[in-house]
Design brief:
- Helix content is 14%, strand content 28%.
- With 107 residues, the protein is α+β, with helices and mostly antiparallel strands.
- The protein folds into two domains: 2-34, no CATH class; 41-101, no CATH class.
- 18% of the residues are buried.
Length: 107
Amino acid sequence: MIYFTCSGCRYEVSAPEDKVGEYVLCPSCFTRQLVPPPKTNDKIEAAKAADQIYGLRDKEIVKEYKNNIPVHCQLCHTLMYAAPERIGSFLTCPDCGTKTPVRPALK
């Protein structure tokens, strides 16, 4: 699956990988969206190098990081994860470059 943000309403849209280059409808606003190619690993590697976890969707990998705090980018809503030690610091979104503060997780 490929996950991307709708250009109309900022909803996170998903599409099968065989739909790359085709148009799908956003399930939220019904705007036609071109399915982009999968995100490159260099963005993920840059996020890991900056001590942040990015784009975890595999349930097995998520279990490994269960103590981490989910952080949504303030601008594009990309999901990132931060270690509890990062509370009070900022994460840089690998998609849009916006700095987003890490806040304590709500319980």
